Write a sequence for this structure.
């Protein structure tokens, strides 16, 4: 782990998230991070609107957010946690989803509270436990595994460092151990 344990960071709005996550509309499924507790956990928010393109065909007359997008929202919140944990030195890529449970429908007008907690990190992989709640009620959950790799080149890494510093993300060196 690193020296972030227990540190709580400010929330990150959509403008800050756009500097930190590689995803863009219509595939950015986290609107803001409202809590980040060091290398332990984080909570993201997604406001579901009827204007999202998947609702045109899923399903006409009864819009329901696809379950695969709920899993992607959990993966993006988990990914943000892993990027922060590794201080922008490595990128997480989705590798596996286990024990996914979809408990109820998500419809336009709902606000998703997406939590992600670190279960394990090491040997180039990281595992998170993620869940989505709406109004305090469980919607879905899964254990998500990521392959964590170095950034593809130095210029991309420098760009990520610059963006992180521009929003005030703490960039102290991680403690190896």
């Amino acid at each position: 782990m690193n020296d972030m344990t227990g540190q709580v960071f400010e929330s990150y709005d959509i403008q800050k998230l756009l500097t930190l996550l590689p995803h863009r509309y219509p595939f950015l499924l986290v609107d803001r991070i409202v809590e980040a507790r060091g290398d332990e956990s984080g909570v993201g928010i997604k406001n579901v609107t009827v204007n999202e393109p998947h609702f045109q065909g899923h399903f006409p007359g009864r819009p329901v957010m696809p379950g695969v997008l709920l899993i992607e929202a959990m993966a993006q919140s988990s990914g943000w946690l892993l990027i922060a944990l590794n201080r922008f030195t490595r990128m997480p890529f989705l590798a596996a989803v286990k024990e996914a449970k979809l408990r109820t429908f998500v419809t336009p007008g709902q606000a998703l509270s997406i939590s992600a907690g670190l279960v394990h990190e090491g040997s180039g992989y990281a595992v998170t436990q993620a869940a989505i709640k709406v109004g305090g009620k469980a919607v879905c959950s899964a254990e998500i595994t990521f392959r964590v790799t170095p950034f593809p080149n130095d210029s991309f890494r420098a760009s990520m460092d610059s963006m992180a510093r521009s929003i005030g993300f703490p960039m102290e060196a991680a403690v190896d151990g």
